[in-house]
Amino acid sequence: xxxxxxxxxxxxxxxxxxxxxxxxxxxxxxxxxxxxxxxxxxxxxxxxxxxxxxxxxxxxxxxxxxxxxxxxxxxxxxxxxxxxxxxxxxxxxxxxxxxxxxxxxxxxxxxxxxxxxxxxxxxxxxxxxxxxxxxxxxxxxxxxxxxxxxxxxxxxxxxxxxxxxxxxxxxxxxxxxxxxxxxxxxxxxxxxxxxxxxxxxxxxxxxxxxxxxxxxxxxxxxxxxxxxxxxxxxxxxxxxxxxxxxxxxxxxxxxxxxxxxxxxxxxxxxxxxxxxxxxxxxxxxxxxxxxxxxxxxxxxxxxxxxxxxxxxxxxxxxxxxxxxxxxxxxxxxxxxxxxxxxxxxxxxxxxxxxxxxxxxxxxxxxxxxxxxxxxxxxxxxxxxxxxxxxxxxxxxxxxxxxxxxxxxxxxxxxxxxxxxxxxxxxxxxxxxxxxxxxxxxxxxxxxxxxxxxxxxxxxxxxxxxxxxxxxxx
Length: 473
Known about the structure:
This protein has helices spanning 15-23, 67-81, 97-109, 125-129, 151-158, 187-195, 241-256, 272-283, 300-313, 336-347, 353-366, 404-418, 445-472; strands at 4-9, 41-47, 50-56, 84-90, 112-118, 141-142, 175-181, 213-219, 222-228, 259-265, 287-293, 321-324, 371-372, 375-376, 378-386, 391-397, 426-431. The protein is of the alpha/beta class. The protein has a 6-stranded mixed beta sheet, with helices on both faces. Strands 8-9-7-10-11-12 form a 6-stranded mixed beta sheet, sandwiched between helices.
């Protein structure tokens, strides 16, 4: 088993900065304000040939209420899961009552804990560490995570007693499922329901989730990675810089996923922002499942109104499966997996060139392409050009002149015959180059003589024809 290192401490002491240093990434949001990190975030670190797991956590102050209480509960859960706890304090701010409270909890937890004095750049480390000896967690270790000073020595010291792990095969992350939508539609509640545990912070407040949280797990022996994302509001309503970074993380998570589950608040109906999110998922080419949450407690008339909106406003996304669920109570949530697996299988499907070409011939035989400038457009063969989303490349001549209506006809027939559901399909049309285009035809002396004889013969025929017309008159 890999050693697990949890980073804990007050808000804004540099835990996420150290997390990014240890994982050599920029996965954790970093901003000069407290409370940016709210959920437990896991990452993979490596020192030489020795790998380890790092957990970034939210800040603990001891007097938490509301959402801060949920953040603190996540941090305490990380301490329970960890083999080693790195307790970060701020070397510039000095000792704080919250630091004493956290140190007391660590002493009673009997966990291997190390006191890390961060932000010691520009100050005397001995002076910065002086106040923290009273916490009773051993000799403090001074680092400057923002400048990567002392970080490597810290990891070498912490992992010194752990043996080299045996080589293991790279873990299959399985189907990556991104849970996306507007703020406060129940994304985190749905994530917890799918996982069967309180894994991410849930609070009745818009913008609770600020970072994209990747959570690998198994269901029925099949690996999955679920991605809880921050809600995306309309651009005019985004004021804070940290929210802008959260939205960027969400859009990156969509591109990194295999299947996106778009969560819509059924009680508010389909809004313009829902359509914007849906458009982004489709432009990214990701497989799609649409879940209408908060379905419980709605009247029969309200439910009929929502279903009418679906038929009217989401007709362009008819390829996706629609589910009406309650993430809070769990009704309908289990059915999402069937649609997710179906969409993933269709998005990653492989078809032989022979099958696609035969299908193209059958489709063209049923309905020929139109003529352009007196010449019939010819579609010769088709092959697959990619997956997730599926790309089908059709070769022929004058394909750039093919009308949109005929392209839709091809797409609809292919989707129907190949039984594709839950993922958009992209068609690319390529016209073969004319090998003689731009080349001058140079005649041999014999061909030139024959050409001149033909021209002379044609002139003679024209003269005889003209004479006959004169005689008739």
